[in-house]
UniProtKB/TrEMBL annotation:
Annotated GO CC locations: cytoplasm
PANTHER family on file: PHOTOSYSTEM I IRON-SULFUR CENTER, PHOTOSYSTEM I IRON-SULFUR CENTER-RELATED
Molecular functions (GO terms): 4 iron, 4 sulfur cluster binding; metal ion binding
Domain of life: Bacteria
Record's keyword terms, sorted: 4Fe-4S, Electron transport, Iron, Iron-sulfur, Metal-binding, Repeat, Transport
Presence of keyword Plastid: no
InterPro entries with a match to the protein in the record: 4Fe4S_Fe-S-bd, 4Fe4S_Fe_S_CS, PSI_iron-sulfur_center, YfhL-like
Protein name: Ferredoxin
Length: 84
């Protein structure tokens, strides 16, 4: 699954520079995560870095609209970082 930033976001700027896939950017009001680039840090880290640096609990959650298993996230990582 890709991750989703909820309306609890306080725009603290902690998550955006931590994303190894550059999937996080400023939206109209809060930061947003591009589901096509989010691999939940699979291929980079054991846990999503955006979630670990966010100072507000439950602000970054799994996106129910983007159901992906670990294998699918790995395939996405390979496509993003090893495209020929």
């Amino acid at each position: 699954m890709a991750l989703l930033i909820t309306k609890k976001c306080i725009n603290c700027d902690m998550c955006e520079p931590e994303c190894p896939n550059q999937a996080i950017s400023m939206g109209d009001e809060i930061y947003v995560i591009d589901p096509w680039l989010c691999t939940e840090c699979v291929g980079h880290y054991d846990t999503p870095t955006c979630m670990s640096v966010c100072p507000i609990d439950n602000t970054i959650v799994t996106d129910p609209a983007q159901q992906e298993n670990r294998e699918q996230l790995w395939e996405k990582f390979v496509l993003i970082h090893h495209a020929v």
